[in-house]
Every structure is written in structure tokens, then in C-alpha cells.
Amino acid sequence: MLTPSQTPSCDPSNFVQPFDYVEVNLYHHNQFNRYIDWDLEREHGDLGLGSGVQSLPPHSELGKRITKPQNHEALKELPGRIVEQAEMNISLARLRLDNIHRAHPADVINPTVADVLPANIVAFFDAGMKRIEEQAPPQRALGLRVIAAVTNFDFDQRGLGFEVLDEVLRNAERPNARHEANRTHSAPVMSTTALPKSDGEDEDAHVLGARLREMLHATRGFVVVKPFADYPMVAYCKTFHMYAKENYNEALMQAREGLDFRKIQFDASGLGRLVESGR
After folding, report:
1. Can you list the pairs that 85-91 forms with residues at least 24 positions away whose Cβ atoms lie under 8 Å?
2. pLDDT tens sequence across 15-50
């Protein structure tokens, strides 16, 4: 047994954090699926999903109808459909499940492909966007422009490289940017040739990292960076990409109008790059 004098010190000065940020992989597909099964059976009774709910309630109206033999395929597909729509995001899963619980059984058993987002998901994103709009003016403008830019293209693309996005944003920040965008001149082209290491390389990397963190902080989690050399930036999920691209938010729509995307082209890998005028 340790005496008080032998007990290891827990003084805060002994704790060291030798990094700027940490990436944590929270991808637990099996647990996510089990949560969907658990919530469905907790609300609608025994659906044969084996969720482990200790005390199953009686069948709801949906539970009664979806467990009929003729609806076997609908029951089989329901959990997977929710998982796909939720995109491994527990908040979206909760909202999608709430919609299932409130829906008419016929709409769950025979779903149609909706071309609009559910009202509760729009409200969820609206609340998040309000946090961005309440930032100080420089951070507000940056956050809105970053989101507007990365969601201007198809979600299935690889994304906009960080330096491309940064150039688009800096062009928008210049005086008379809209007027200059209509003039014929060449834009910088991202080189694919490795440059020799220079004395200023570490400083450049520091500036790049600071600018990238500034963008991510201003977007409040709605934009993420893919783990590739060009730092492709995309919306954090496809549902939010649709929300932004389809103009559910007026501030994003206005921010997009101030950006010039004409010099951006996507290469074979799906990465957005700047190209010279006249190409």
C-alpha cells in the first residue's frame, strides 16, 4: 500500500499535450446498427430485430402492420434505410427515427423518394447555422463562404483542395471582386510537381495550418478535411450538403452569389483545381 508521500503526483504541470489537434475515429458500424434496432423495437414492439430491449412494448400500429408476412421486405429494409439516411451521425439518426415514429404506417412500408428535407432536419441545420451567423463579422463571412463554396459542387466529388478554396475566398474578399471576375486574366494554377525544400517551407506549412484551422473553426463542424495531400474540403455529410446546395439557408445563398467558381475544374480523381483562363 502506498503512503501519501509515495503517491504519484497529479500536479497539472506534469501533463503534456504535444499536438494541436487530435483526430478520433468514432466509426462503430455494429453499435450504430444496434442502436437503430433498439429504438425501433422500443417504440414499436417486437419486430424480430433482436435488439435486446428488456421489456418490449405491445406492437404499435406500425409494428402490427410491418410484421405481417406480406410486409417482410419492408421490415427487412427499414433499419438499413435509416442507417443510410443517418450517415453514421447519431443526431441525424435520432431525427430520422422520430420521423418514422410519427409517420403513417403506409408511408413507412411503402416509402417514396423525397426531394425535400424533413422539417425537423432543416430546423436542426438552421440551429447550427445560427451559431455561425452569430460569430463576429469576419468569422461569420468566412464560415458562410467556405460552406457555400464546398457545397457548390456534387457531394460525390472528392472535394475542393484547400489552396483552391483559399484562392476562391481571397478573390471574394478583394475590393471589386465581382467586377474583376469578369475580366480576362489568368488564375494561379496548383502545381503537381514536387518543389525542392526551401528554408521557408516550415513557415509556409505553419501558415497553411493556421488558415485551415481558421476555416474549420469558422464553419463550426459543418466542413471536414479528407485525409489526402491536397486537403480536400467537403460538407460533413451528404444531408447537410443538400441543405446548403438547395438553398434552404438564405445567408448561404447570398454568400455563394459572391463567389466565382468559373476557373475550377475537377480532375479524374474528382478533386477541384484551378485552371488557367482559356483552357
Report:
1. 85/239, 86/32, 86/36, 87/237, 87/238, 87/239, 88/27, 88/29, 88/32, 89/237, 90/32, 90/35, 91/124
2. 555 555 555 555 567 899 999 999 999 999 999 999
The domain segmentation of the chain, as residue ranges, is 29-113, 124-189+210-274
Q: What CA dihedral angle connects 79, 84, 90 and 94, to 10 degrees? A: -50
Q: How far is the C-alpha of 133 from the C-alpha of 255, rounded, in Å?
A: 12
Who's near 126: CB < 8 A, 6+ residues apart?
Answer: 248, 249
The Cα 187–Cα 170 span in angstroms is 12
Per-residue pLDDT of 103-117, as tens digits, reads: 999 999 999 988 899
AA identity, residue 44: H
| C-beta separation of 222 from 128 below 8 A | yes
pTM above 0.90, yes or no: no
Beta bridge partners of residue 277, listed in sequence order: none
Instruction: Calculate the CA dihedral of residues 268, 270, 271, 275 and round it to 10 degrees.
Output: 50
**Cell, residue 128:** 447550427
Greater pLDDT, 25 or 61 = 61
d(CA 273, CA 263): 8
